[in-house]
Design goal:
Elements lengths: L1 H22 L1 H22 L3 H24 L4 H6 L1 H6 L5 H30 L7 H26 L6 H27 L5 H30 L1
Length: 227
Amino acid sequence: MNQPTMRTAYMTLLRRDVILAYRNRAEFANPLLFFMLVVTLLPLGIGPDTALLSRVAPGVLWVVALLASLLALEGMFRADFEDGALELMLISPQPAAVLVLAKVTAHWLATGLPLLIIAPPLAMMLYLPVGALPELLATLALGTPVLSLVGSIGVGLTIGLRRGGMLLALLVLPLYVPVLIFATSAVDAAAAGLPVSGQLAIMGAIFIISILLAPLATAAALRIALN
């Protein structure tokens, strides 16, 4: 009986947050526009050296994707915190971690999935080899959910602060480093024609650990922040 109830609560909250994200799509479009603008302007700053652009493409794409994800983090729980819905969520009979996971999933669908969709054409603008595109998409598919999951912990800790944006960045950026290292390493290796199974396996392990532990940590952080 509990499992269907938890599933229903998860899907209901997920649907609600996706609808709200669609209604406030201008706000969620900012990280996507940032990603597109930075990657588009980079060749103008570096120059037309295709070999150089191809070499820096994996790192540039992932650093900009990481910063774009960071831009959208602060709004993950903000509206619910301001209208009191967050407190109701935490005292709900459903496990708070399940509800947190629903909100993080909705956040990723609104911010991470668009980055995943727009990344291939932007990567080709930077002359990333076509053969490395599947690995780029694989790293984004594994890595961007981790950015949202890990970032939600920082959001939970800083939700009650008036100007918590800088503190949020200081909290989560060090935790993003492993994802950045293994993701860029995988895309670099794919561009060079080398195997990437090791890097992808590590990223998969990071994703599994994050999805199991981050909602629990975020729920605890939210309770601390609201008490």
